[in-house]
What we know:
Elements: H1 2-21, H2 25-40, H3 42-45, E1 48-52, H4 53-59, H5 61-100, H6 106-160, E2 164-168, H7 184-198
Parallel strand pairs: 1-2
Helix pairs in contact: 1-2, 4-7, 5-6, 6-7
Amino acid sequence: MRKLTLIASLAVAAASMACSTSPSGQNNANASSSAAENVATPSAAMPVAWVNMDTILPNYNMYIDYQAEVEQQGKTLEAELTAKGRRFENEVKDFQDKVQKGLMTRSEAQQRETELGNKQQALLQAQNEARLRLAEEEQVKLRKIHNSIAEYLNKYNADKGYLFIMSYSFGGPLLHGHPSINITTEVLAGLNAEYAASKK
């Protein structure tokens, strides 16, 4: 949207130059009026639009469904890892109890200690791999969501003919968007309608 602001500023500057060289006060008034109209309606000068992704994502049903899936997968994974961790802790306690009671020879204790150490390493590795796999699945889902939005916008824009459809999000490069070219509500409705149809 900086480009839009720059275009508007250039239009105002051009109008000011026209005012300084115009021999007629009527021409000055016409130039000022024209410049004001260009600033007020940027879409008339340049066919662009923008969508608010901070609004679309949390209200896009595909995102909502995917988020629920990821949360459930995360809960299931953590439950499995917790159960395995508790079983391992019980094995360690049982080993320590037997050693304290002298129920194992030194050789048996050393062998069991090595086994438990290897088991702990394997458990930690399995935990890390499972969490990485879950994070990867989450990233794939997010890419699918963004891809579905991009594909929908391509179809949507076939009739609209915008040169650019920009994305606004807090902290992103787009600092301001003119309300007259905000198509967020229309795009969100279309996305949800298309997603609902795909689930039938």
